Amino acid sequence: MTQQLVERPRVDRSALSFVPELVYFEPAALDYPKGRRIYDWVNKEGIPYRMTTSHNRITNLPGDTELEQYKIAKRTLVVGLRKTLKFDTSKPSAEYAIPIATGCMAHCHYCYLQTTLGAKPYIRVYVNIDDILDAAQGYIDERAPEITRFEAACTSDPVGLEPITGSLRELIEYMGKQPLARLRFVTKFHHVDSLLDANHNGHTRIRFSVNSKYVIKHFEPSTSRFEQRIEAAAKCAAAGYPIGFIIAPIIWHDGWEEGYAELIAELDKALPKDARENLTFELIQHRFTSTAKNVIEKRYPKTKLEMDIEKRKYKWGRWGQGKYVYPDEQADALRLFISERVFHHFPEGKIEYFT
Ligand code: 0TT
Ligand code: SF4
After folding, report:
1. In which domain of life is the source organism classified (predicted)?
2. Ligand 2: distance of its center to the CA of 127 in Å?
């Protein structure tokens, strides 16, 4: 497939969720229009950059301690090619994870990327979107006539990066033309303006991750504020996108009932009437692996995140490491309480799953 991308994403500094402090380019990335565009932008902004033969070779990130290097990595962008075109599965949200970026500039304490990205927490964006879309087409064809859903937020927060890459817009427009494909992604950012006039054809569901005031305040540094997320959700709905909310991670904290009741009441207050059609909710309880617990305690030593394995239930993983979730009694209480509040305020809403 030929490169069709010629349009510049609307980059305007005030609209940026983040400006990297350091950028690495894999040389091959500069053979692609998206790579060149990012390169020109980096030069225009005067952002320092280096060339690297492969992201795997990045071993000399600035910073004296591991923690400093981690913080710098979170502000480092690597522009390269996606080589693995075999997609991971993404149950329960979709059939497949579609990779357009890996890593995120936010600092949510509970984030599973802390462990899944291991020693490489920098942010990678992929410029060979056409290869990725070709691979997606293979999966769509394979499942036809069933619909295939792709989740674009498994390994990053793609909305936070959209002002730099414009990749989501391309995915949205591609899936808009596919009778048998749907796209979905979730975000804690509000930078949706460049997506509003995309030809989505109702095939992309944009979900906003929301939480109680306590969780947002203590565990979600460097993300957009709650009010900004809701405002962005209303804009997406007005642009005809199906929208949804992911309440995740649901955390059992002092006053959680009031906290989650307030969250859903605030959503009800803030969301315009016409944004409620075809609204979905996904409920995900907090979970952690023992590796995650170690990493989080190192990176956010003062975190209030409770990760006491004595208070949790161990859930065996199908492949790999198991996770600690809430014991059934607590998980049921969270699920029942929050579901009841959702149906009270949004009788037309649909809860897709609690996991
Ligand atoms: O805290 C993370 C948990 O949240 C994971 O168990 C997945 C889950 N999750 C995240 C979810 O239930 N719904 C979502 O929409 C997610 C944002 C997307 C997602 C991610 C998913 O649905 N299923 C997944 O398996 N993932 C992750 O993608 C896990 C894995 O690390 C990666 C690739 O499969
Ligand atoms: Fe992780 Fe999402 Fe927070 Fe980014 S916004 S750090 S991807 S939980």
Report:
1. Bacteria
2. 21
CA distance 201 to 272: 21
> Mean pLDDT score of the chain, rounded to an integer?
93
Percent of the chain with pLDDT strictly greater than 90:
85
Burial label, 293 (beta-carbon count in 10 A; 0-12, 13-18, 19+): middle
Choose the weakest-confidence range: 45-59, 126-140, 185-199, 302-316.
Answer: 45-59
Question: Could you tell me the distance, in angstroms and rounded to a whole number, from the CA of residue 9 to the centre of ligand 2?
Answer: 23
| Ligand located closest to 115 CA | 1
Tokens of 315: 């859930």
Q: How many domains does the chain have?
A: 1
Of the listed ligands, the closest to the CA of 205 is 1
Does the predicted model carry a pTM greater than 0.85?
yes
244: domain CATH number? 3.80.30.30
Question: Which residue owns the Cα nearest ligand 1 atom 19?
Answer: 154
3 pLDDT higher than 50: no
- Indicate the top mutation candidate among 111, 162, 187, 296 to test ligand 2's pocket, ranked by most ligand atoms within 8 A of CB: 111
Taking the alpha carbons at both ends of the chain, their separation in whole angstroms is: 38
Residue 31 within any structural domain of the chain:
no
Q: How far does residue 276's CA lie from ligand 2's centre (Å)?
A: 25
Domain that holds residue 179: 82-354
Q: Report the alpha-carbon distance of residue 242 to residue 205 in Å, rounded.
A: 5
Does 77 map to a domain? no
pLDDT of residue 334: 98
Residues 195 and 232: their CA atoms lie apart, in Å, by: 11
Q: What is the pLDDT of residues 243-290, one digit of tens each?
A: 999 999 999 999 999 999 999 999 999 999 989 989 999 999 999 999
Residue 158: C-alpha distances to residues 245, 255, 263 (Å): 16, 32, 24
Regarding the beta carbon of 117 and ligand 2, being less than 6 Å apart is answered: no
Q: Does the beta carbon of 90 sit less than 6 angstroms from any atom of ligand 1? A: yes
What is the tens place of the pLDDT at every residue in 89-130? Answer: 999 999 999 999 999 999 999 999 988 898 788 999 999 999
Rounded to an integer, what distance in angstroms lies between the CA atom of residue 193 and that of residue 190?
8
Predicted pLDDT at 1: 34
